[in-house]
Amino acid sequence: MREAELAFLNAPFEADGWRTALRRLSYATGSAVTQLCGGGMGPTLSFNFFSEERHDPRGHLVNPQLYGPENWRINCSTGVARSIQFERHYAAYRSANPTDFYDDAVSDLDLPFGCQSPLMLDPDGGLVGLAVLRSSRDGPCSPDLIDVFARVARQAHRAVRVEIALGQARGEDMLAGLADSGEMTLLLDRHGRLVAMTETAEAMFDAPCGLRLAGLAVRLADPQEDCALRKAMARLLDGDVIGGPVVHECRIGRSAERPAGMWQLFVTRLPAKRDLLGVEAQLALTLRPLLAP
């Protein structure tokens, strides 16, 4: 167990650290597979790592439909970060919800047992989760196994927080040169969550037509402008690294008094980096005031 704990604590600092930690957890619990996954709202996962490649000819493990409402592993969570769920919680969810689609996949994969913990949850539905997936031969989780998992999960939670802090520190380093420029710039990760910002950008969160925070996600105050920004950010992040778009420009802060908007907004895709958990800065938002007509 101690090796698994140390492997998670070292994971943010090693090239293959998270997968190494998952393999250690698999060994410590005598389980077929362990999993670390995470993402934002909706069924799509931003990252989904396993301790080993499972024989999966039908692609169940990477099928986004299997991470929706029928997935009793994800949906039995109590909504409390660092809580533990296991077979008793799975059975309760199955008894109250239709889960045939996920049950069939679990049968194909022979992973009917296990335990899990949402290491981190944010108000907009984002999560980072750790799970042990056990085969019929492994059997259900014993109280001792759940205790081992809980101890390792505590270290995994710390490791995720370290990874986030490192991403924020690197983001602040990127903005250091703008400290005296008066530039209103924010850095966001690939989920649209705030990584770092210049001091002058903080005032935008107090502006009536400016920015808002939903959890850590940056939003525009105007819903229509925010929807357009979400789509533009997705195009930038999904585009080809070499030939795709790297900058989006628009006006925001429209009102009856300022129909042309109050700010020019520039969204820039930053150079890609190794970022397994999606916490590094990947977009820069810069706002510049427009002169009143």
The gist of it:
Helices cover 32% and strands 22% of the residues. The chain is α+β, with helices and mostly antiparallel strands.
Explain the overall architecture.
The protein has 7 helices and 11 strands. With 293 residues, the chain is of the alpha+beta class. It has 2 domains: 2-167, Beta-Lactamase, CATH 3.30.450; 179-289, PAS domain (Beta-Lactamase, 2-Layer Sandwich). It has a 5-stranded antiparallel β-sheet with strand order 6-5-11-10-9. A 4-stranded antiparallel β-sheet has the order 2-1-4-3, covered by helices on one side. Helix 1 runs antiparallel to helix 2 and helix 1 (2-10) packs parallel to helix 6 (143-175).
CATH homologous superfamily title of the largest domain: Transcription factor LuxR-like, autoinducer-binding domain
Report Rg.
Answer: 22 Å
Distance N terminus to C terminus? Answer: 67 Å
Please tell me what the overall shape is.
elongated
Under CATH at level 1, the class of the largest domain stands as Alpha Beta
Low-confidence stretches: none
What percentage of the residues does DSSP assign to strands (E)? Answer: 15-25%
The CATH topology of the largest domain comes to: Beta-Lactamase
- Kindly report the oligomeric state of this protein: single chain
Record the strand order, biggest sheet.
6-5-11-10-9
Total E-strand runs: 11
Largest sheet: 5 strands, antiparallel
Helix content percent band: 25-40%
Helical/strand content category? alpha+beta
Order of helices and strands: HHEEHHHEEHEEEEHEEE
Mean pLDDT: 85
Q: Mind telling me which CATH architecture of the largest domain this is?
A: 2-Layer Sandwich
* Tally of helical runs: 7
Q: How many individual domains?
A: 2
